[in-house]
Amino acid sequence: MSGSPRDPDPGGVGGPVTGLSKTGRAALIPLFLVALGVVGIENALTRYFAVAKWSEYGYWIISIVMAGFALSGVAVALFRDTVERHGQWLRAVLPAAMVLAAALGYERIARNPFNPLQLQNPTTWADQLLNIAGYYGALLPFFFLAGLYIALIFILNPREIGRVYAYDLIGAGLGSALALGLMFLVHPFLLAPLLLVPLALAPLFQPGRYSTLGGALAGGALVLGEAILLLGTPPAYSEFKAVYAPMNTQGAEVVAEVRRPRGHYLMLDNFTERVDADVSNNASMMEVEGPPATYGLYRDGSRIAALPKAGGLGGGYADSALSAAPYVLRPRAGALILGASGGFRLAEARALGAERLLVVESEPVLKHALTHGLGPSRGLALGDDVQLAEGGPLAVARAAGAAPGERFDVIDVSSDFIDAAPANVTALTVEAMQAYLAALDPEGMVSVPVSIRDFPVYAFRVMATAREALIRAGVERPEDHVMVYRSAWNARILISPTPWSEADVAALETFAAARSFDISWRPGLDVEAARAGLFNDLPVVSFESGTVVSQGTDDAIGREAEAVLQGRDSPSSRAFNIRPQTLDRPAYYASLRLDRPTTLIHRLEVLPQAEIGALVNLVVLAQAALIALLVLAAPLMFRKRKVAAPEPRRLWPVLYFPSLGLGFLLIEIFLIDKAAFYLNDYSSAFALVLTSMLIFSGLGSLIAGRVAALPKVASFLSLIVVLGWIWLVFTRGEAVMLSTLDQPAWTRWLIVLAAAAPVSLALGLPFPLGLIQVGEGRMLPWAWGLNGAFSVVATPLANLMSREVGFSSLLMVGAALYLLAFLALPPGRRARSNPDPLPVSSPA
Length: 844
Prior knowledge:
Elements: H1 22-26, H2 29-52, H3 59-78, H4 80-85, H5 87-111, H6 125-156, H7 161-182, H8 191-194, H9 196-201, H10 211-231, H11 244-247, E1 253-260, E2 263-269, E3 294-299, E4 302-308, H12 325-329, E5 334-338, H13 344-351, E6 356-360, H14 364-372, E7 386-388, H15 393-402, E8 408-413, H16 430-439, E9 440-451, H17 457-472, E10 482-486, E11 490-495, H18 502-515, E12 518-521, H19 527-531, E13 541-542, E14 547-548, H20 556-565, H21 571-575, H22 597-602, H23 609-632, H24 652-679, H25 682-704, H26 711-739, H27 745-763, H28 766-774, H29 779-804, H30 808-824
Helix pairs in contact: 2-6, 2-7, 3-6, 3-23, 3-29, 5-6, 5-10, 7-25, 15-16, 16-17, 17-20, 23-29, 24-25, 24-27, 24-28, 24-29, 24-30, 25-27, 26-27, 26-28, 26-30
């Protein structure tokens, strides 16, 4: 390449082109490497948030990425001529700038003291908002430069948009796959430093006179960037994460480490680690030994289980535990245990006389520790009376319900099961409860744990879910099929397919009285009379006023249990969402009424930490909407240029590209969340769906150039595939998932790939078709920015829609958006060059 301003090669600085030569195609290899590195770093930053902070804030990365791309599109549109004139030079030096920006940004976020718990403190929340802004300030420059580079390649190759977009998407998809593979090999904090390398390699493959300069700059930037990361502030766990205190106790030792895409696992040995069992205050009077010392297993800094030491399991404390009642009511029970708790739940059940145990352990590392051991903790000899089930709780319960000879006396959910793996949250949905009831002996029971440390509202949500499952099973009076008992900190909800007998009620009362537990609900309970004999006070707190409204000893669950089980209005149903959980809306920590933001803001200090993410989502959505409006208004800032034959004002891009940005992300997020349930792993689901969608969308975009002469026909065919796929997912998707949950992991991975491939292929067509239609003027980078800006909106919007309405709403809105995009796309031939997409009148 000569690099002349009139060089016809699109790898040069500009000028009319007729297609990509071999040299021009080679010039797209740097774009491939940049896209690979950028998306790899995006995945690495998501893992950083999960490990160092809290995983629910990792979606900020997607928001920052798309904000950077959107703003870069506006910048290139505003200064298109300058960017194009210096295009070859910029293409050579931008990778070096990206390497430095990424290194500096990563080091800055490691120093950021963000703590979401302090968002709940009136004196510290303002500082935390500044810390959130600090994340954007640290990372936005890198993603802005990345978007600038990609937009530059688009305007330098306007006649080969489909091929350019394909290199971008396929590189991005492989970057996600590379990050996933590296998660098996290196600590999560080392992912970003490794993924700087593809960025630094990009200029080496750039033909032209600036390739040597670009390679030298990128090499120097890589050395400097790695020095910044190695010598700067090292990433570390937040001091407010569960792992921080035990790691920093005297004599604490990490005795095992496991690196997986699903999480970074540490097994700790220190004096603080014990079985987390809620035992009676009367344990010493009952001459029952306390829970034994254990190893503590942590994933991404959150404790997920205790693992036995050399002394073995030891279940002598079981008779004093809150979870013991089902085995007392049903001696010699055959039990389905959801969550082995490192094996201690098996020891407890055996100590209580259970004779046949089927155990579901959905967390793979915990399951491996159970059978083969982990570090110094040895695997368990399960014995003939214990069987380890394959598949998740829903799959196992459905299989048991279909085989009458496999019915259970007790289905027992462990207290640490729900938070141990992403798919486990679906174990408390209406569909799961229906499966449990069908898998029970007529006199059997389901035992569900609920923490009441924050609010009793989670107990009401489980009760509302149980009520709905019972009604679907044909029960007329659900209140006769439920009993609730509790300690000061936790409750157990017992659900039976048949009404509780007087003998069962009397047995539970005897069990509770001997252990100083309280019964919050049983058939025929006189709540006011029961208050006089309470062992553990659970006062009613008004969320509206933030004050305790009860007088004397009280039971907040008992006051509302009957109303909830009868489906009547209650104080909690007015203040919180206590609607049933379903597979379509499975979020457990989703009790806040987001339609009452003023009340929530005034009660921040009493909200559970897991609920704060929804409020932050609202703030991010407002910010994203502001960015989108600024990008929409960008044409008003475009400088007027005189052209021989200016085009008329064109408004279709204002509908077309935002629809694509929103629609693509809504479908992608739907697939990620459903795959997380199906694969029981959010990190792997994120990487697998992102990789497959980007690669297949890239292949779809390769077709765009071949069908550009018939954009409306190609767009129509794409729309038919998208709508047909959505219809199939609505009608058959859930059935296919549920019927294959017991398949090996590799089979389910292939099913996810097969599900993502056709729709992704179709989704790859509309965007390059639209870019081809807008021509070669300022509208090209502006359209790129529009797509990115509304992708920023899509992430928090999708999170809120799935929480409040359900995942199916993402597909419904996605279908409507792609239909809108099809209607907006003009049928005409490719537009010629137009520097001003939306000419505006000059000031009077």
